[in-house]
Design goal:
Layout (H helix, E strand, L loop, with lengths): L6 E2 L10 H9 L11 H14 L3 E5 L2 H12 L4 E6 L3 H4 L4 H4 L3 E6 L10 H8 L9 E8 L12 H13 L3 E6 L2 H8 L12 E5 L10 E5 L1 H13 L8 H11 L5 H17 L3 E3 L5 E5 L3 H10 L2 E2 L1 E3 L2 E5 L6 H14 L1
Helix pairs in contact: 1-10, 2-10, 3-9, 6-7, 11-13
Bound molecules: pyridoxal-5'-phosphate.
Cofactor: pyridoxal 5'-phosphate
InterPro entries: ArAA_b-elim_lyase/Thr_aldolase, Low_specificity_L-TA-like, PyrdxlP-dep_Trfase, PyrdxlP-dep_Trfase_major, PyrdxlP-dep_Trfase_small
GO biological process, one term: L-threonine catabolic process
Length: 339
């Protein structure tokens, strides 16, 4: 059998830095960021803060560390935090929200939309804290887009409503915005329209934006000063990090390119429907397809040179900047040739 080039739709994390990004990394001006700030790191942090409409930001090696830092700042032992079921902070960070940040997780059902709880559900879960031995609910974690729900988007008015209910009931708000850029592009709004009222927000540079490494966690200057201490505590202080921040800066110039990923996801979803698959229409760059036996279908696709990601009862296909429109057509051709 001749070797066919695989089309990797497992995740947008598979994106590799291209020539322009590598050149920017090679040319980056750097200094010791742990001692007195690396200039390129600083430029990236300022740019992220501006884009998110907050006062300060901090580069972190991963989104998981960004979320953990925020939760360590917001939570005390004996606190409870709310998050929509399937949230990354609940299911994909090894429980660090509990065992490092000290918060008891409370998943909220998706009673409003896939990946989203209603204002009423948040109000009810926030509730009065009761007796001294009851948990204190102190934090709401939102996720936009919601990964496990298939990259679903929360609109600015809905976001504002959830934040206002959280504030009324005495909760702080952390936004896991790993793919906030995708949400903003899908809605045609600036990213800052989706961060209104939050106490902290985490965004990824290493997914659809294509940087090899990096996220940022952002909020008030006081929050970021504390975040810098905790990043060091977790071993995440890097020295000449400008080499990595330079890649992030190039990525931030490419936010608008995400529209192509979203168009490609729609093309893929529509093509799969034509082939008789049961598919949820994508809001951003993820296509969820219901299949009776994900592992079996996954292996079949792998033989065709199409890589997807298994989920309970489903396969997930993620479009990204290393997959072209032609690759999506080729994906559909490979699948149709086998069916
Ligand atoms: C990818 C992701 C993160 C962070 O992931 P890292 O691999 O640690 O960078 C956080 N939240 C969501 C929703 C994600 O998809």
């Amino acid at each position: 059998m001749t070797q066919i080039a695989p089309i990797d739709l497992r995740s947008d994390t598979v994106t590799r830095p291209d020539e322009a990004m590598r050149l920017a990394m090679a040319a980056a001006e750097v200094a010791d960021d742990v001692l007195d700030h690396d200039p390129t790191m600083r430029a990236l942090e300022d740019r992220v803060a501006e884009l998110l409409g907050v006062d300060a930001a901090l580069w972190v090696p991963t989104g998981s560390m960004g979320n953990l830092i925020a939760l360590m700042i917001h939570l005390n032992r004996g606190d409870r935090f709310l998050a929509p079921a399937g949230a990354h902070v609940l299911d994909a960070e090894l429980g660090t929200a509990a065992w490092l940040a000290g918060g008891m997780p409370h998943p909220l059902a998706w009673d409003a939309a896939p990946g989203r709880a209603s204002a009423g559900a948040i109000r009810a879960a926030a509730g009065a804290s009761g007796l001294y031995f009851n948990l204190r609910t102190t934090l709401l974690c939102l996720e936009n887009t919601h990964n496990a729900a298939g990259g679903t988007v929360t609109q600015p008015d809905e976001h504002a409503l959830l934040v206002s209910v959280a504030k009324e009931t005495g909760l702080r708000v952390h936004l896991d915005g790993a793919r906030l850029w995708n949400a903003a592009v899908a809605l045609g709004v600036p990213p800052a329209a989706l961060t209104v009222g939050v106490d902290s927000v985490q965004v990824c540079l290493s997914k659809g934006l294509g940087a090899p490494v990096g996220s940022a966690v952002a909020g008030s200057p006081t929050f970021v000063a504390e975040a810098r201490r905790i990043r060091k505590m977790l071993g995440g202080g890097v020295r000449q990090g400008g080499v990595l921040a330079a890649a992030g800066l190039v990525g931030l110039d490419r936010i608008d390119d995400l529209a192509q990923d979203h168009a490609n996801a729609r093309t893929l979803a529509e093509g799969l429907v034509e082939l008789g698959w049961t598919v949820r229409m994508p809001e951003t760059n993820m296509v969820l397809a219901e299949v009776p036996d994900p592992e079996v279908t996954l292996i079949g696709l792998r033989h065709l040179g199409v890589y997807a990601w298994p989920m309970p009862g489903m396969l997930r296909f993620v479009t990204h900047r290393d997959v072209t429109e032609a690759d999506i057509k080729e994906t559909l051709r490979r699948i149709s040739s086998a069916s």
